[in-house]
Design brief:
The chain is of the alpha+beta class. It has one domain: Aminopeptidase (3-Layer(aba) Sandwich). It contains four helices and four strands; from the N terminus they run βααβββαα. Strands 1-2-3-4 form a four-stranded antiparallel beta sheet, sandwiched between helices.
Length: about 130
């Protein structure tokens, strides 16, 4: 496995994975992301993303926007340590990053705790 800098050739991969059922539910914003919206987003923030390659094929992505980590792993590759690898690699490059995780997202909470993250704040909404 290796983590490579995001390039334009991976932008659609990120969008498709982010929109996939079973993946998008883990994100705070769960709406469908159009090609146009994603293109604009990647123009601004694409340089803050990395792609995880296994045998030269993408299996997930990780990034951080203003310190906030975003991570996703292909459903068929989950449970193999890819998320942990990506987060640990990201933290070597961006050590001040943090994770905002929904309290109902038990998989992500467990993943970040395995990477040494600790609960620090709660955000309450009405």
């Amino acid at each position: 496995m290796k983590l490579v800098q995001n390039e334009r050739k991976y932008w659609e991969y990120i969008r498709v994975l982010r929109n996939e059922e079973g993946v998008k539910e883990g994100f705070v914003q769960q709406k469908y992301i159009s090609k146009f919206e994603h293109f604009k987003f990647m123009l601004k923030y694409g340089k803050f993303y990395y792609i995880c390659l296994e045998a030269n094929s993408p299996v997930g992505f990780v990034g951080q926007i203003k310190g906030d980590i975003r991570v996703a792993v292909e459903p068929g590759h989950q449970g193999k340590g890819i998320g942990k690898f990506m987060i640990n690699e990201l933290m070597t490059r961006h050590p001040d990053s943090y994770a905002k995780v929904k309290t109902t997202n038990h998989e992500s909470l467990g993943l970040f705790k395995k990477c040494g993250f600790k609960e620090k704040y709660y955000i309450l909404e009405k």
